[in-house]
Design goal:
InterPro entries: BIM1-like, BIM1-like_dom
Membrane topology: Lipid-anchor
CATH topology: Immunoglobulin-like
Organism: Dissophora globulifera
Number of domains: 1
Subcellular location: Cell membrane; Endomembrane system
Keywords: Cell membrane, Glycoprotein, Lipoprotein, Membrane, Signal, Transmembrane, Transmembrane helix
CATH class: Mainly Beta
Helix content: 10-25%
Number of helices: 3
Distance between the termini: 38 Å
Strand content: 25-35%
Largest sheet: 5 strands, mixed
CATH architecture: Sandwich
Oligomer: single chain
Bound molecules: copper (II) ion
C-alpha cells in the first residue's frame, strides 16, 4: 500500500496524470491535464443533470494523493458563470481533509441551505488540493426531496482499516515504508550507476 502510494505521488507530478476524479454524481467532463482550470476543469457547459437528494446526499471521488484538502461549493441556477463560482467559494458548502488515497464518499447534506428546495437546479464544484495545485471538477444536479434516481450504492470508502481491505498492523506498515524507501534508493542508485558508466 505504501509502495503504491509513493508510486502514485511520483506519477501524479506529470500533468497528464489524473490527480483525482469526481465519479458520482457524473462530472461535467474529465481531462486530466485540464483539471487545474477553474471553475470546472475546462468544461464550461452543462451537459446532463443527476438527481441529488435534498438531505443526506454525497459525492464519490477517487483521490490519487496520499492526503488532500477539499472544498465543496454549490451554485444554484441553470447555467452558472465563472463569477458565480467565485461568489459561492466565499461560503463553502463543505470542507474535508482526506487522509487516504482511493475511493472516498464525501457527505453533502443540503437540507439546511436556504436556496436548496425541491426541483432546483444547481452545480456542485469540487476544489481539490493534493499539494501540487488546486484542481476543479463539477457536477450538474437537480435537487429533489425524493431522489429515486440517486444511486446510494455509489458511496464507497477505501479506508486503511476498512472492511474488504487488509488491515495494516503497526509493524507491517513500518516495513512497507522502509521497503518503499529501499526501492527508491535502489532506483536512484541504478540511475547514478548508469550515469557513471556513460563517462
Ligand atoms: Cu496531483
Amino acid at each position: 500500500m505504501k509502495v503504491f502510494s509513493l508510486a502514485t505521488i511520483l506519477l501524479c507530478s506529470s500533468t497528464a496524470m489524473a490527480h483525482f476524479s469526481l465519479d458520482y454524481p457524473s462530472s461535467r467532463g474529465f481531462i486530466g491535464a485540464n483539471e487545474p482550470l477553474a471553475p470546472c476543469g475546462g468544461f464550461i457547459a452543462v451537459t446532463n443533470r443527476t438527481q441529488f437528494p435534498l438531505s443526506k446526499g454525497f459525492l464519490e471521488i477517487n483521490s490519487h494523493h496520499a492526503a488532500a484538502d477539499l472544498t465543496i461549493n454549490i451554485v444554484f441556477g441553470n447555467d452558472p458563470a465563472a463569477m458565480d463560482f467565485t461568489t459561492a467559494a466565499t461560503t463553502p458548502a463543505s470542507s474535508i481533509s482526506l487522509k487516504h488515497p482511493g475511493n472516498a464518499c464525501l457527505p453533502l447534506d443540503l437540507s439546511t441551505f436556504k436556496n436548496a428546495t425541491n426541483n432546483v437546479n444547481a452545480t456542485i464544484q469540487v476544489v481539490y488540493n493534493g499539494g501540487d495545485s488546486p484542481l476543479y471538477q463539477c457536477a450538474d444536479v437537480v435537487i429533489v426531496s425524493n431522489a429515486t434516481g440517486f444511486d446510494q450504492s455509489k458511496c464507497i470508502n477505501d479506508l486503511p482499516t476498512g472492511t474488504g481491505a487488509p488491515t495494516p498492523t503497526k509493524s507491517s506498515s513500518a516495513a512497507g515504508a522502509l521497503s518503499a524507501t529501499g526501492t527508491l534508493s535502489t532506483v536512484v542508485a541504478a540511475i547514478f550507476m548508469a550515469a557513471v558508466m556513460t563517462f
